[in-house]
Amino acid sequence: MDSEVQKRSQLQKVQINGSLLKYASNELRNDREVVLTAVKQKGCALQYASNELQNDREIVIAAVRQSGYALQYASNELQNNRGVVLAAVGKYGWALGYASNNLRNDREVVLAAVMQNGEALEYASNELKTNREITLAAVTQTGYALFYASNELRNDREVVFAAVTQTGRALKYASNELRNDREVVLTAVTKTGYALLHASNELRNDREVVLTAVTQNYGILQYISQIFQNDVDFVLKVAQIHSEINISPYTQHFKVFNNPEFIREAIYLPNIKNVKIDKCRVISTYLPSTILDLLYGLI
Predict the structure, then answer these.
(1) Which of 147, 149, 227, 238 is the most buried (most CB within 10 A)?
(2) CB within 8 A of 273, min separation 6: which ones?
(3) Which of 19, 51, 75 finishes a domain?
(4) pLDDT (tens digit per residue) in 15-46
(5) Of 175, 173, 177, which is closest to residue 148 (Cα–Cα)?
(6) How is 38-50 classified by DSSP, letter by letter?
(7) Can you spell out the DSSP letters for 21-35?
(8) 62 within some domain
(9) How many Å apart are CA 153 and CA 160, to the nearest integer?
(10) How many domains, in total, are found in the chain?
């Protein structure tokens, strides 16, 4: 088979699946038309191109526009090319990790990366991790980016507020001071009840904060402090909010669930739809016999 026939055959293959460039001859992996066709179909086919073409700006741009991840296969020279890297991080923020150190310290490049994926902040230079505008953009895209922020910015109320507004669990990465900020914590638990686990001890004993968390996610009930576990009014309020009494191995130790008067009052709340024991409407040995007798008579 002559070289022109081989080229046409390879072109047909990579038009369908760019990764098939892997099986091409060295000659065809150094052919601009074949490689360009391959990377336009699958950017990461760049890894199979010749070293020469991995340093070809047009081919690399085409590759990273199809998949920003392909930047890792570009030459060192093009990993330091601003236009190439901007194209890559605009498609895939984490491609910042394959950029040169010089460009990981470039404000425009890093801002473009974190706007596409906030967690790309991980790969920014230490200097830009202290940049407030960049960090705000990152945590606005995903609150989890707060993990990569500087200690100073993890204690910045506006930055942390933006993070927990996007992802409640980002509270975990806030400073101790802001984990004790009532408004910040209320915002976090409103978004994700489990953010309560990262609040200060003081706020984990704040009735409104805890009720907001349990309202958002009933599952957090098992982690609330004993103050509320044994508070009849509080547990009744939770039952009203969720229209059920849910007694499981995680909550059976609540003293209120061993109180027949509480069970009787809870069952007769106007909006209670069912009594769940370990996720089923079944009486089990989790409760003392006095309570079981009562439930058998009421359910």
Answers:
(1) 149
(2) 243, 244
(3) 75
(4) 999 999 999 999 999 999 999 999 999 999 99
(5) 173
(6) HHHH-GGGGGGS-
(7) GGGS-TTGGG-HHHH
(8) yes
(9) 8
(10) 3
104 in Cβ contact with 126 (< 8 Å): no
Rounded-to-integer distance, Cα 245 and Cα 37, Å: 62
Give the pLDDT score at 231.
Answer: 87
Please give the structure tokens belonging to residue 33. 């038309």
- Summarize pLDDT for 76-100 with one digit per residue, the tens: 999 999 999 999 999 999 999 999 9
Total residues belonging to the chain: 299
Which of 194, 89, 98 minimizes the C-alpha distance to 137? 89
| Domain housing 7 | 1-75
Banded model confidence at residue 229, pLDDT cuts 50, 70, 90: confident
61-75, 80-94, 141-155, 285-299: least confident range: 285-299
210, 216, 219, 225: CA torsion to nearest 10? 0
Question: Do 169 and 205 have their domain in common?
Answer: yes
Model confidence at 283: pLDDT above 70: no
Q: Which two tokens stand for residue 230?
A: 């044994």
pTM: 0.84
